[in-house]
Amino acid sequence: MAVYTWGFGKNGQLGLGNKETVHTPQPANKTSAGQNLKSVVQVCCGGLFTAIVTRDGCLYTAGCGKFGRLGLGDSEDDVPLFSLVNSFGGVQQVSCGSWHAAAVTVEGQVYIWGHKKACGNSITSSSEGSAAMGIPSHVSYFTEVKVSGVACGHNYTYVWTSEGRVYSWGRGQHGVLGHGSDRDILSPTKLEQLSEFIVVAVDAGYSHCGTVTQCGLLFVSGKGSDGALGQGQSQLTDVYNPTKCDTAGCHISSVSCSKGEHHGHTLALTKQGEMLVWGDGYKGKLGLGDQKSRYTPTPVPKEYFNNEAVVSISAGGIHSSAATSSGSVYTWGCGSDGRLGHRDGQGHRYLFRSDVPRKVEELPQNELNTASVSASYYHTAALFS
What we know:
By secondary structure, this protein is mostly beta strands. The protein has one helix at 116-119; strands at 2-7, 22-27, 40-46, 49-54, 59-63, 79-84, 91-96, 100-105, 110-115, 132-138, 147-152, 156-161, 166-170, 185-190, 199-204, 208-213, 218-222, 239-244, 252-257, 265-270, 275-279, 294-299, 310-315, 319-324, 329-334, 353-359, 371-375, 379-384.
């Protein structure tokens, strides 16, 4: 398993041992303890930091330490090499938001850390008077249930259980929590409107959220002014309750919501390996060959991906990324600060972009590889097996 990172690196979030911006993918293969980084099963990019999970359940983080988002303790220093978060073991999934992160263990329990504004009062903390919670803390609310996954957005969190129930809490701006208002909710609260469905995936963006059900339906909530909710050009208001998105009969398997405050957009992956996009087309980040916005789900032509099935998607702030069944990685949108990973973007800080998905040629080219991608606002990562 190999991890590659690229893009803006000022806070060490690329995990390469320095704080430099990188325009082409580089292998992140060393830990702060000098060990080789092996058997990685997940990589997740957050706000100026990155987390990885290994096959043996270890969690490592790198990047900006402010507000305790790395989970490494009270220090707010930047960490440019992946460092072990040793507060707990047996991690099976991690999610990184803007200022906080959370993980699910193999036992189905949730731990959370980072900015207290995002964590709410879902935990008890001894760091009274501090805005940060630098050590992962157990979310006791879920002690009696088994959690399947967690999704961290900008100052809010979603959790879904093995039975398909979904909960959210944190800042409620734009109605992103899906509880009928834009009020903050400090403790995990069940989304009753989705109780008749089995939820299998959630992605929490900066200002909107997408929830996928077992039967392939997609529900959205949050900021509507950019068209990122896919409700049509006449429906650009905020949505406070989970609302079905018309995906033209496609069975949705996963969703990715943009990580930027402005120019919101959404990517959705169908069971057949087709990608749908909608929202603000700023800098060509919808991948449709122009910078126009789309207000309902629109398929990206398969030929843009060499007619291969798409297997992984990730929406950054002003760029997007995807991986195909052959292990190829594609990026598109704004190319400033190296976030697209294309060599010819170097030296074109603000003008470089791609309006269509473009293969990242600097990555391993091997038909036996499978790949997944993760994008935050400033940087991108790919995981190969």
